[in-house]
Each structure stands twice: as C-alpha cells, then as structure tokens.
Design brief:
Layout lengths: L2 E7 L12 H8 L3 E7 L12 E2 L9 E2 L1 H9 L8 E10 L2 H9 L2 E5 L5 E2 L1 H7 L2 E4 L8 H13 L15 H4 L13 E2 L2 E2 L9 H19 L1 H11 L18
Parallel strand pairs: 1-2, 1-6, 4-7, 5-6, 5-8
Antiparallel strand pairs: 3-4, 9-10
Helix pairs in contact: 2-4, 3-5, 7-8
Bound molecules: adenine (ADE).
InterPro entries: Alpha/beta_knot_MTases (IPR029028), tRNA_m1G_MeTrfase_C_sf (IPR023148), tRNA_m1G_MeTrfase_TrmD (IPR002649), tRNA_m1G_MTases_N (IPR029026), tRNA_MeTrfase_TRMD/TRM10 (IPR016009)
EC number: 2.1.1.228
Catalytic activity: guanosine(37) in tRNA + S-adenosyl-L-methionine = N(1)-methylguanosine(37) in tRNA + S-adenosyl-L-homocysteine + H(+)
Length: 248
C-alpha cells in the first residue's frame, strides 16, 4: 500500500520540492509513497478567490478563513489519515509522532500562510498542531516538508542496505556520538585511537560515553531526562574530542 501525503497549500509548486530528490525522491518514483499538493486557492471566494481576511480584535496581518479551509479539507479523501497543522504554536514534533505517522496510511498537512488559520476550523477538523522548533517560518510548507521527509525515510523499503534506518539520535534519549572516516589523520587532526583498534566492545563503550558527553553539553533537557531514567551521574570520559568546550 502506498503511503499517501497530501498538502493543502496556497503554493502547490513547493511540493514535492526537496522530497523529489535523493532517498525520498527515489521512493516517490518507486511508488512507496505518493505526494499530492492541493491548491486551497481553488476554494477561495469570489472572482478574486479570496482565502483570508483581517483578524477579529485587530492586529497585524491576515488570517485564513475557516469556510475556505474547511472546504479544502472536505475536498480531499482523508482515508483514515491524521490532519496535521504545522504552527509555531503547536506542541513540539517528536520522533515518536513521526513513527506514528509513518506507521499509518499517510498524512494530510494543512499549510498555513499569513498569520495563520482561524482557530475554529482547527478545532472542528481535529487538526494536530505541531511545531518543528522555536522559530518562525514564513509558512507551513517548509515545516510540512520536514515532517514528510522524516516519515518517508521510515517507510519499509525506503532505506537500502547501505543506509541506516536506526534512529541513532533520540533512540535512547541521547544525541549521536561523533563520526569519523578516512583519512585517519587530516589537517593535523587524528581520529580517536579507540576507533582504529578493532575492539568492538571498547568502541561501543567510547561511543556511548561520547553520546553522554555531547548530550550533557548541548541538550540539558535530554540529559536531565536521561539522568532521571538511568541514574547516570556525570558522563564518563569520552576522549579528548568530547570535552565540553569543543562541543559548542
Ligand atoms: N510555521 C511557521 N513556523 C513554524 C514552525 N516553527 N513550526 C511549524 N510550523 C511553522
């Protein structure tokens, strides 16, 4: 069964965009997933196909009209798919959400423009409001692309044997350890000795300690949760590359 992505947007030419390339693009060509972009302007009102109006209560910018957005939503086959509305006001999008979306039949993403969408249509449609981070994009399309990219890479058959579908970061609540490849010496910098040793247990231990160090330095939120879960106190020494100063 093809995993189905639908974007409701005023800029249908933004899709598939980057999702038409590389891993997601090959999976799209192979029919593992499908991408449909519906132009909400088609549901706009009057000769000028108006989709927005000024906010009640005053303030800057324009708000997308609930009647127009509702008609656009009604115009698609939901087929059991969740309706997702990317917005900086949403709850943080997490890998657990991505896993849930990828495991289902697909998603419908409502891409807002202007100041956003009238709250009533979000309530009425049961839209899941998600944020991809604490910054403001000019519209939902880039956030939708982020969400879809993260889903598509998890679909069965998308990752070849050469690619790892393992969610290194976040799988155990830690950031991923640093990666190195050839040459072993570059620009006066050495690869950590243990990685050249062939001792798998020692390598695994170093990597885990490096994950702990980098997580403590960069993500106090993840580190606190990890400490609470594991009782881990301070990170073990992870080698000269992992000292906190170098990580910022
Ligand atoms: N739309 C605009 N900014 C956004 C953000 N940070 N996350 C999700 N959707 C958005």
């Amino acid at each position: 069964m093809t995993w189905q992505a639908t974007a409701l947007t005023l800029f249908p030419a933004m899709f598939p965009g980057t999702l038409g390339q590389s891993l997601a693009g090959r999976a799209l060509e192979r029919g593992i997933w499908s991408m449909e972009a519906r132009d909400m302007r088609d549901y706009g009102l009057g000769r000028h196909r108006v989709v927005d109006d000024t906010p009640f209560g005053g303030g800057a910018g324009m708000v997308m009209r609930p009647d127009v957005v509702a008609a656009a939503i009604a115009g698609i086959e939901r087929a059991g798919r969740p309706l997702v509305y990317p917005t900086p006001r949403g709850r943080p999008l997490a890998q657990a959400d991505i896993r849930r979306y990828a495991a289902g039949p697909g998603v419908v993403v409502l891409c807002g423009r202007y100041e956003g969408v009238d709250e009533r249509v979000l309530e009425a449609s049961g839209a899941e409001q998600v944020s991809i981070g604490d910054y403001i994009l000019s519209g939902g399309e880039v956030a939708a692309t982020v969400l879809l990219d993260a889903c598509v890479r998890l679909l069965p058959g998308v990752m070849g044997s050469g690619e790892s579908a393992v969610e290194e970061s976040f799988a155990d609540g830690l950031l991923e350890y640093p990666l190195y490849t050839k040459p072993a010496q570059w620009d006066g910098r050495d690869v950590p000795e243990v990685l050249l040793s062939g001792h798998h247990a020692a390598i695994a231990k170093w990597r885990h300690a490096a994950s702990e160090t980098v997580t403590q330095a960069r993500r106090p939120d993840l580190w606190a949760a990890y400490q609470a879960r594991t009782g881990q106190d301070t990170p073990r020494i992870a080698g000269p590359r992992a000292d906190a100063d170098r990580l910022n």
